[in-house]
Write a structure and sequence with these properties.
about 280 residues, alpha+beta, endopeptidase fold (from Nostoc punctiforme), 8 strands, about 50% helix, rod-shaped
Length: about 280
């Protein structure tokens, strides 16, 4: 008998082949499951979860609708632009029409003014023609003032300073009448009288109103050559002349007759003043 027979064998007891195969299958299945789970976990860990949105597919109909919408928008923009151009043209036309109307009114007013002026000028020419005819008939004649007394009946000859005044005004007969004129070839009524008295160193006021009160008032039936005649009130006279004797006076009458020598009856004065 062996000296080790009484000692238990250290070897494990042998398993059957079927037991080993079964255990191997179980182990393989577990390992496969773990492998699949690990792979799935790794994949899930490596790729983040995202949400996917599905966009509509651009179909032919949708493309046609987009194109049609663009055409409509373009047509609307063109329509607005055309309307704006029409509005601007209408505003411009209205402005031009208003300006044309104002110009037409202005021209019509000017034509009316010119026509009125022409009528007045024609009336003045007719009046002047009649006035010249009357003046021609009355120059060199004397007449009664209607009260039975002779107006300006004095026929005394001028002497001294009066003669110089009379000579000066008579030498201007035929000169033109110009409002504001003071000579030497055109006069207004008070300018002529003032210049005549300057010949004898007498300074008279420039205007008719003041000349009508520059001397001593005298009656029209007691006139002497060199007296100043006035028409209108004393201090408010609108016309003056110089008495030259024999019922005559010299004065710058108006633009149609100029400076004339005429009878007192042609236009009887309102009064007279004596300066000399």
């Amino acid at each position: 008998m062996s000296h080790t027979a009484h000692i238990r064998s250290h070897r494990k007891p042998r398993r059957s082949a079927s037991t080993i195969a079964m255990r191997a299958g179980v182990a393989g299945g577990v390992l496969s499951t773990l492998a699949v789970a690990g792979a799935s976990g790794s994949a899930n860990a490596a790729e983040p979860v995202t949400q996917t949105l599905e966009l509509p597919t651009l179909t032919a109909d949708l493309a046609a609708q987009v194109a049609q919408s663009a055409d409509v928008t373009q047509q609307a923009a063109a329509s607005y632009e055309l309307q704006a151009e029409r509005d601007a043209a209408a505003a411009k036309a209205a402005k031009e029409a208003k300006a044309d109307l104002a110009e037409a009114k202005k021209k019509a007013a000017q034509k009316k003014k010119a026509a009125d002026a022409a009528r007045r000028a024609a009336a003045e020419r007719a009046s002047r023609t009649a006035e010249r005819a009357t003046l021609s008939a009355s120059v060199g004649t004397g007449s009664s003032d209607g009260s039975g007394s002779s107006v300006g009946s004095s026929s005394s000859s001028a002497t001294g300073s009066a003669a110089a005044v009379v000579s000066f005004v008579q030498s201007q007969v035929g000169d033109a009448y110009v409002s504001g004129g003071t000579g030497p070839n055109s006069w207004d009524c008070s300018g002529l009288v003032q210049a005549a008295f300057k010949q004898v160193n007498i300074d008279l006021p420039r205007v008719s109103q003041s000349q009508s009160t520059a001397g001593t008032q005298v009656g029209l039936d007691n006139l002497q050559p060199g007296d100043i005649l006035y028409w209108g009130g004393a201090g408010s006279a609108y016309h003056v002349g110089v008495y030259v004797g024999d019922g005559m006076f010299v004065g710058a009458q108006n633009s149609s007759t100029g400076v004339v020598k005429a009878s007192l009856s042609y236009d009887p004065p309102s009064g007279a003043v004596r300066v000399l």
